[in-house]
Structure formats: C-alpha cells, structure tokens
C-alpha cells in the first residue's frame, strides 16, 4: 500500500465523527491492505512496534522538528517549526504546511507524481531509526527522518509527524481497532478480544483473523518473552468480596513494583533466558540482576510469573515504594544499587508453566501451580501466602496483621476467577486504608516566578479518553512539591515540551503523577468535565506510562462513588 493511500484513508477517518462509521472506515482500510496489514494496523494506532515490544523510536519532539525543518528547505529552521507549532497547536498541521524537498523539485520539473513511499518503506525506515544507537545515533535518526519527510506529500507529512511522536489524534482508540478487525474479517468480538489479550499485538491478530479465521485466533497463546498486560484491581471491601463470591482469596498487598517474569526453556531441560517486565511491559531485566539470579536459582521450569518486588531493610522488613523505584529504571551503577537496595520477590500468580497456558484456570489452581514451579523449600520464600476464607473476622484479622507488618493493605481475589490481562474488573479487589490518589498525565505546565523562574511550577494534569486515544484536562497541581523536587520535575519534563507561549508550556504526554485529592467535582473549567478539590502531588509514577493513567470513565465512577 502506498503511504499516500494510507494517509488519504486516515484523513477520511479523522474527519468522521460517528462511531459506527469510523469503525467501518477503519475496517475498510484494513480490508484494502495487502501483506502490510500488520503495519497498517499499528500505524493507525500511532505505533511502529507492537505493545509487547520494549523497542521505541527514542526520538524526542525537538529532533523531529529538526528533521522537518531540514526537509522543508534551507530557509526553514527548527525554531520556525516550533513557532508554527505554538501557533497551530499540533505537529501534524505544521508538517502539512511545508513543501518538502522532493515535492519542490517535482514542481520545478512540472512532472507528475514521483515514485511514492509505501507503508512498508516507512515502517522499515522507522525500524532502522529505532535501531540506531551509540555515538552519533541522534544524528543518524535525524538523517533517516529527514530522508522520509523529504519524500512526503503534505498529507503524508501530517501523519508521519504524528506517527513519529506516537500520537495519531484521529479518534481511533483500542476498542475501535478491535471492532474494525472483527468487522473487516468477520470475526466474533470475544474471539478477537481473547487473541489480543494473549498476544498484545493488534497487527498480528488482524493478520491471523484474515488468514486463518477463528480457529487461528483461538490457537494463539501466551508466549514466553512477550509480556501481556497485568490484571488490575478495583477498590473494595471484604464484605463485598464475600457477598459476590461466598469465599475470598486474600493476599498481602505488597507496596512495591509489579513485575512479570518470563523464564524460557533452556537446553537439556535447564532454564533459558530470563526477562523481567514492568507493569508497562518495559523490559527492566538489566536493572534487576539480583532478581534474575534468584529466579534462576529457585525456579524449575519455563514459566510466566506475575508478582511484586519490594525493597526490604536489613531485617527483611518492607520499605516504602520509593525505594524500589530507585532500582527500577536504573541504567548506570546497577551493581552499586543492588548493594544499596535489597529487593525481594513476592510471586502471586502463574500465567504459564511449562507448555501449559493457565489464563483460564481458576486462581486457586494457578496458585497451586505457582508453588510447584519453585524448587522445594523456595516457594515458602517467593510465593505470596494465600488465605482462602469465608469468614469476615478471619479476613479482618489478616488485614490487621498485614498492616501491622508494614504492608500497604490486602488484595481480595475471586478464588474461581480466570486471569484477565489488562482488566480492572470485579475479580480483584484492593483494600488499603490510605488516602485516595489518582494517576494523571502531565500535559502542560507553567514556569514559576521569582526564585522559581527557572523551574516549572504548576502542572496541568489530564485523564485519558481511550475511545479517541486523546487526553482531557482535569486540573492543575502546584502543592506538595519541594524545591528539590521542582528541579527534578523540570529536568524530567523539559525534553517533552512541545510548545511554549509566555509562562505556559505544552507537554507531550509521557510522565504520570500520582496526585492526592479530597474530592472529585463536576467542573466546566476542564475538558474532562471534572476537577480535583485540593490536589496534592504525591509522586512521579515512573512505573506507569500515560496508557496506565486514569480514564474519563474511571473518574466518573470515582465521582459517583464518593
Ligand atoms: P496502587 O496505586 O494502589 O498500587 P495501581 O494503580 O498501581 O494501584 P491496582 O491495580 O489499582 O494498581 O492495584 C494493584 C497493584 O497492587 C498491582 O498492580 C500490584 O502492583 C500491586 N500488588 C501488590 N500485592 C499484590 C497482590 N498480592 N496481588 C496483586 N497485586 C498486588
């Protein structure tokens, strides 16, 4: 498929306001694709790589502006691109406004269309861009991107710019893509949803739906080495749990960082490669050599485990969540950090053991299997204790003990429930006595004044609208932040600034803040329709990406349940 043809269809999709029509147009786009179908499906979502992959383009907005400026000719500078961006508010519109090198040449010769870019060519160039690393890699990335932009028509440039920055803004969320796959290849929603859950790859699922139908989709399974989304919890109480299920499986809610551990099968029945993923499915293996070693020593079979790693003090007692984060994304001085912060693994679920996928098995069976994956004796240390009980007093005592021992609270799980990746449903309930917090995406900020003029001071926060894959504002936070934190936050956010006007900056969604609040109120001021009363900064959730931030729907539910 020509990239121009892709861009034209996407332009039509962007202009479409109706949900059903949007699904039909996306389905028609998928139907028109040939071997490049998986790429088309990813591009529509603003992705080059499937969700399970940790690979990123690793190119910030300013390098993208430089590439656009170069392609636009000698009279255009990156500053000019930024000035237009401040004016027009969106990089796609800015890119579309230039005439790029080859187009200018063609116009001069008065010739017809050039040999157009194809979707596959764009994909392979962007993959080469992602591969560039080491010294000089940033220049190489700009060169590659410049090479693409100079071949682009204005419409192609609009979507290339947005694709590179990971935001298509065409009103197509994950649900729309799923429905379009169902529609294009005539498959039931449940079959496609299950396939998406286990593979985490919309492109692959679309291709299998087209080529092998329902039987092919049903045969897709979890694969060791491909992380899946974590199952999540809602707030709830023991009374609700017993009411719904009769009996509850209670576990400690460890205050650490979520890990999904993938252990490959090795040669001669030994273990192969071990990889650890964060709850965003980022590969954090390199930062956690001690956890890898522990797993290598204590696990007997290939498997996929779900659990939490917690920082502990010399006596083995849990330390606050912030300590784990010091270890998590570490790229340098890893050995020193291993010495400084001791981690302990608490595995609480098993998604696959040996060649057997366990997602649809009941929780209690998965827990039994989890224990057998560890060597004799090791399970006691590594596997989270599970208390099965139908007695409210026993559950209350379990919770009191957990809090007494310094844990965050308890989890209550439906003993008969399947593992449902990415689901924040009714089968896992979390119970913790602390204040309410929400996880929000930083989408803007304001420079401070006086002593704080060189720091970003007030942060604009947004929630996610999954259906349109966009962000909607919900408030600002300026309280709860020390001067030292302001400096750190400025350093963290500055590279993501996309536009600036006076004191105010726009920020590409990339950083998630945990924010405490007293109440959620309806409000006409913000695009979400809600505002936080007394918002207070709690922490940067480095373990979360914008995709994990609260959605508009969840804010609505929280507001209702107050
Ligand atoms: P929170 O901010 O409360 O940790 P969250 O948004 O990170 O919530 P939730 O799904 O709301 O995630 O809460 C579940 C989280 O609690 C899991 O993601 C996991 O990291 C952690 N956790 C700790 N102990 C357990 C356990 N025994 N079972 C499941 N999750 C656990």
TrEMBL record:
Names of the cofactor(s): Mg(2+)
Enzyme class: ligase
Ranges where the ATP-dependent DNA ligase family profile domain occurs: 336-465
Pfam families according to UniProt: DNA_ligase_A_C, DNA_ligase_A_M, DNA_ligase_A_N
EC number, UniProt record: 6.5.1.1
Keywords of this entry: ATP-binding, Cell cycle, Cell division, DNA damage, DNA recombination, DNA repair, DNA replication, Ligase, Magnesium, Metal-binding, Nucleotide-binding
Amino-acid positions noted as binding ATP in the UniProt annotation, renumbered to this chain: 251, 258, 279, 308, 348, 424, 430
Active-site residues, record numbering mapped to chain: 253
Catalytic reaction annotation: ATP + (deoxyribonucleotide)n-3'-hydroxyl + 5'-phospho-(deoxyribonucleotide)m = (deoxyribonucleotide)n+m + AMP + diphosphate
A biological process term (GO) from this entry: DNA recombination
Signal peptide limits: none
InterPro entries: ATP-dep_DNA_ligase, DNA_ligae_ATP-dep_bac/arc, DNA_ligase_ATP-dep, DNA_ligase_ATP-dep_C, DNA_ligase_ATP-dep_cent, DNA_ligase_ATP-dep_CS, DNA_ligase_ATP-dep_N, DNA_ligase_N_sf
A molecular-function term among this protein's GO annotations: DNA ligase (ATP) activity
HAMAP family for this protein: DNA_ligase
Known role: DNA ligase that seals nicks in double-stranded DNA during DNA replication, DNA recombination and DNA repair.
Protein family (similarity comment): Belongs to the ATP-dependent DNA ligase family.
Name recorded for this polypeptide: DNA ligase
Annotated source species: Halohasta litorea
């Amino acid at each position: 498929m020509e990239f121009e043809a892709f861009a034209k269809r996407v332009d039509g999709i962007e202009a479409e306001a109706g949900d059903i029509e949007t699904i039909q147009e996306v389905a028609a786009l998928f139907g028109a694709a040939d071997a490049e179908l998986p790429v088309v499906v990813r591009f529509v979502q603003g992705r080059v790589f499937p969700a399970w992959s940790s690979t990123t383009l690793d190119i910030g907005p300013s390098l993208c502006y430089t590439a656009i400026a170069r392609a636009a000719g000698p009279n255009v500078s990156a500053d000019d691109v930024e000035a237009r961006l401040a004016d027009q508010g969106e990089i796609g519109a800015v890119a579309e406004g230039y005439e790029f090198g080859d187009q200018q040449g063609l116009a001069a010769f008065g010739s017809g269309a050039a040999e157009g870019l194809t979707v596959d060519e764009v994909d392979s160039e962007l993959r080469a861009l992602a591969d560039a690393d080491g010294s000089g890699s940033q220049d190489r990335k700009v060169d590659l991107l410049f090479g693409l932009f100079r071949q682009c028509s204005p419409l192609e440039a609009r979507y290339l710019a947005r694709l590179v920055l990971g935001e298509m803004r065409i009103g197509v969320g994950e649900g729309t893509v799923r429905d379009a796959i169902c529609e294009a290849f005539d498959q039931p929603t449940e079959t496609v949803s299950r396939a998406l859950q286990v593979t985490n790859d919309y492109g692959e699922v679309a291709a299998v739906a087209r080529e092998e139908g329902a039987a092919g989709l049903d045969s897709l399974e979890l694969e060791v080495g491909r992380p899946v989304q974590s199952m999540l919890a809602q707030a709830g109480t023991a009374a609700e749990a017993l009411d719904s299920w009769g009996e509850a499986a209670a576990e400690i809610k460890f205050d650490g960082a979520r890990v999904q551990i993938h252990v490959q099968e090795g040669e001669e029945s030994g273990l192969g490669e071990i990889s650890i993923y964060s709850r965003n499915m980022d590969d954090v293996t390199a930062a956690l050599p001690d956890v890898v070693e522990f797993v290598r020593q204590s696990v007997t079979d290939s498997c996929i485990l779900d659990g939490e790693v917690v920082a502990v003090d010399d006596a083995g007692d849990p330390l606050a969540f912030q300590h784990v984060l010091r270890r998590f994304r570490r790229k340098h001085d890893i050995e020193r950090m291993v010495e400084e912060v001791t981690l302990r693994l608490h595995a609480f679920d098993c998604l696959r053991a040996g060649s057997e996928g366990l997602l649809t098995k009941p929780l209690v069976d998965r827990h039994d299997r989890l224990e057998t994956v560890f060597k004799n004796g090791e399970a006691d240390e590594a596997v989270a204790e599970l208390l099965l009980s139908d007695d409210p007093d026993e559950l209350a005592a379990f919770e009191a003990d957990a809090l007494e021992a310094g844990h965050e609270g308890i989890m209550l799980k439906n003993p008969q429930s399947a593992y449902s990746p990415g689901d924040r449903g009714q089968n896992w309930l979390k119970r913790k006595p602390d204040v309410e917090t929400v996880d929000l995406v930083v989408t803007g900020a304001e420079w401070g004044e006086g002593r704080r003029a060189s720091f970003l001071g007030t942060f604009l926060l947004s929630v996610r609208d999954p259906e349109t894959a966009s962000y909607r504002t919900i408030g600002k936070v300026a309280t709860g932040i020390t001067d030292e934190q302001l400096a750190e936050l400025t350093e963290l956010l500055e590279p993501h600034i996309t536009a600036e006007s006076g004191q105010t900056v726009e920020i590409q969604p990339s950083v998630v803040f945990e924010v405490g609040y007293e109440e959620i109120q309806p409000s006409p001021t913000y695009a979400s329709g809600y505002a936080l009363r007394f918002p207070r900064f709690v922490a940067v959730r480095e373990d979360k990406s914008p995709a994990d931030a609260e959605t508009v729907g969840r804010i609505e539910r929280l507001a209702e349940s107050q």
